[in-house]
Amino acid sequence: MAEVMERRRVSVRGVVQGVGFRPFVYLQARELGLAGFVGNNAHGVFIEVEGTAEDIDGFIERIHSDSPPLSQIDGISQHLIPALGETEFVIAPSTQGEMARNALVSPDSAVCGDCLREMLSPEDRRFAYPFINCTNCGPRFTITRDVPYDRANTTMARFALCQECAHEYGDPGDRRFHAQPNACPACGPRVEFHDFTSCVPAGRAGPPGGSAAFCQAADVLGRGGVIGVKGIGGFHLVCDATDDAAVVKLRRHKDREAKPLAVMVADIASAEELCHVSEEEAALLQSSARPIVLLRRRDQAMVSSAVAPDTSALGVMLAYTPLHHLLLAAHRSASGGDRRSTLVMTSANSSDDPIVYRDEEALRLLEHVADGALLHDRDIHMRCDDSLVRVHQGRRQVLRRARGYAPAPLKLAFSSPVPLLAYGAHNKNTFCLVKSDDAFISHHIGALRSPGTLKSLRETVQHYQQLFGVTPQVAVHDYHPQYQSTRLALQSDVPVKMSVQHHEAHIASVIAEHGIDGPVIGVAADGAGYGPDGTIWGGEFLIGDLTSFSRFAYLEPVSLPGGDSSVKRPWMLGVVHMENAFGTEFAALPVQFTKSLDTASLERLGRVAHDPRLSPRTSSMGRLFDAVSAILGLSSEIHYEGQAAILLEEQAWRFRNGTRGGRMSAPVKPFAVEVNASGGPIQLGPLIRDLVDDLVDGRPEEEVAFRFHLSVAELIVAACEAARRQSGIQQVALSGGVFQNTLLLDMVANGLQRHSFSVFTNEKVPPNDGGLSLGQAAIAASRLRSIRAVQ
Ligand SMILES: [Zn+2]
Ligand SMILES: [Zn+2]
Ligand SMILES: [Zn+2]
User: Fold this and answer.
1) What is the rounded distance in angstroms from the CA atom of residue 349 to the CA atom of residue 429?
2) pLDDT in tens, 211-230
3) 154 strand-pairing partners
4) For residue 737, which ligand has an atom nearest its CA?
5) Has residue 5 got a pLDDT over 80?
6) Looking only at Cα atoms, what is the longest distance across the chain?
7) Domains of the chain, each with CATH number or no CATH
8) What pLDDT is stored for residue 95 in this prediction?
9) From the CA of 444, how far away is ligand 3's center (Å)?
10) What separation in Å is there between the alpha carbon of 387 and the centre of ligand 1?
11) Phi-psi region for residue 698, left (φ > 0), alpha (ψ -120 to 50) or beta?
């Protein structure tokens, strides 16, 4: 008896294009003897499949359980349609021009193991070919101009496939079946080296593999030179990380005095030579996203002290393109081959502008700041920086979310009634587009300080709207009227505007990430954000949920002398906190900090700090850390954002790790902190007085720094306890830039857990302002939903 055949139409949503989904479906269908077809459209992947009900069920199950490594399925729907009696299963051509665009473009992926093996095998036709890729790896987001994700919509469109590549592309049994960036030395992109220091004509095309270009690049690196390297999402400035003079030269050219630089190595063994690497960190380093991972540097690490002078942390990433692997190998063999290559890799850009990604623009810049440039002719359509992540107590903390993660969306716990666009913050800008329950958080755009970054923001907003088919109905922005992101939102032609307070957005980002149900106690330990009362907030204890928050407690506001300009001069904040604690007599205290101040500057500062027109009041936690860093004599003026706090944390870690003789035997007590049962301002005078007493007593800075961290943690736990007594809420959400300080985060999380709180932190978006757009979007979506509910 013939079995009954049925036919179903199946659609798969999620990251399913450009990740080998169609060939995967094809092979499964063939194996099960099913008929029908699979194709891409602007919604994702659509399938019609014909066979027995049992086989089709098995087929759907396999799609769920065995899907390709880079794919992410958000939903599968299926329904019965009339059977056609077909016997073949085929891959259908893509369709275009759909009304909505729900197909998700996948993030860029590091070169896979199979491709690396081929690249290193002399018999392979892609031996030493820097653009080798397959269905499971290679560039995606940064080369995509439009959806659906097909070669014609990428920057690979101009390279016609050679016969062999075309065969692979068309053969469902091949691991390059429908790999859109497929290429080989005969038909694909080429690499070339421009030497700015020699009189050899620029742009000589080397042999197809490009080995001459790599030798030239390695030669310049070996001579202590700095080169520009075109990568996936933009250009890097590169030098030998073990060469002090080269690193100093790169810093001078980049005009970056002390801010930590990241390094790139070839493999995990090389990373372990430089740093302590836990299992989770190793997995993260080797993940297809290949972010920069912040690791603890080994004492004897072979890396110049100029790479990250202020901290024992080192940002390390593994090579993520075939080109990087070839460059590292060439550099290693040029320097004798016995030492693994470690290269500084930092984004190439001019001053406050974003990373350069177009050849002409890059060459103009590189001619001034580099000795050569390793270029190629595969265009980058979307710039995208390296992501920065660390693992903390087994949990990931993303500090910069970009390449390898964007543009994959985060799922909200509910659907927004209308599409919306949250413009994010002024610093570390990202934006967030929401369509139903998908939150597309953009990759890191940067500080909106230069016309170049603003332009990049505008273009990227356009690109995301196009890729994901979103026309926002609501523009969401921060309260701060001077933020460029606020201005852009207000100038946009989006019909409805909505504003969200900065620290409410920080806390909301945690709620959105974890889908937290019910109200939370939100601790925003942050640098600065506009408060509704016209002061600058930043040390806030909020109670509420996505629809509304109230301010329960906050750090006692002090003067922010000259507004933002004092952020670069922590000594000014030190003076403000000293005067707040001791009155004007503070200047006579026998500590190094007061002795270092000169009368004229002090008088000038006094006039500015006491003038409310020049100096707003601030409850900022970040500025408190800056002030204490200055009082301890660690930083008077800073060269990059967060430097004062980093130096302070470093001292505290040193004490905690007992590197100078295990003084941890006697338990250290916190300084005086007092939180009112009813909330309100938390006085900082007692804490500062205790701290200065320690300094007068001649206690070492490391110990004082550690006690300060302990005291702030104590203060936060005490405020959460007071908030719980009043509200009965057990859930605490921690966010804000200060929580990038892992010692503080440890102390606070442990303290809260000891007091039976459930603690939530940012894991997928940054706790700094890079996560703000998600919080803004979540609050706006929730408010819109409750408005709908009332109507
Ligand atoms: Zn591959
Ligand atoms: Zn080819
Ligand atoms: Zn903030």
Assistant:
1) 17
2) 899 999 999 999 999 999 99
3) 144
4) 3
5) yes
6) 103
7) 6-91 (3.30.70.100)
8) 63
9) 15
10) 21
11) left
